[in-house]
Amino acid sequence: MKIVFTSDTHRGFSEKTYKIHQLFLQKMSEENADLYIIAGDLAVNRQKQFYSSLKDLRNFLGKNAKICIVRGNHDFQDATFNHHFGEWNIHQKSFKALLSRQNEWFEQFEIIHLQKNSIKIDDLLIVGFDGWYGFTKGETLSLYQELKEKGNKVFIPSDLDRLTPFMDGVKTYDWLKDTADSEFLRTLNEVKNFNNKEKTILVTHMPIYHTDDKYILHDGDITKFNKIAPYINTLIHGHSHLDLDFNKNDVRVITSGSDYDKPKYKVLNF
Fold first, then answer.
1. 2-269: what fold?
2. Model confidence over 41-55: pLDDT tens digits?
3. C or N terminus of the chain, fewer CB within 10 Å?
């Protein structure tokens, strides 16, 4: 079985990305893969970027291509930066409405959202969840300051200022984190029940292990990896933009290495 995967193509990063993506998707389509996996961050900060990316995936890869996806942190945003006031203008009034609209797009372009539906092809199981940061904003800022005082060069996520309100009494960040936790438990139960490590692939956007201090603020909940590692053969993730392919706890961890205007994909054969 031939699998092609990518992530972090970030349409809208520059005026060049639309043309770059078309050439990139054309090259991907020539692989004639049995399955295409997208590990999140198709967009930068607008929902129209996410929509047009989904549309192009279907158009370029073909009507019969099997495509699955998990969403990245940028795929949840719909905001533009106001340089005059030095702040983000949020365009969506309801995060629930944003999620509903994305579900409609997945159906429209017949793209499988792995958080909703896992895939079983022959004897291979592909599962996934979107994932989210393992820190609240206060914890993030505190950890950032602690690492900075130690002389570490770290990057602080700015996504928290660009999230659409969820609904009265519920913070979008809290909902995303709670959902990531519950979806992880669902996924863990599914792979346990499947109980075939050599034939199980996990896809998520954020790494569920500790990368290094430079990227620690972009890690997900790093306690999750040890819990799920005994049941998966391969972990595909994005987010860090690093080009990785290594073994951790008897799990192959692999990323595409895409970096904004430099999209890449990799091929896996099972």
1. Purple Acid Phosphatase; chain A, domain 2 (3.60.21)
2. 999 989 999 999 999
3. N
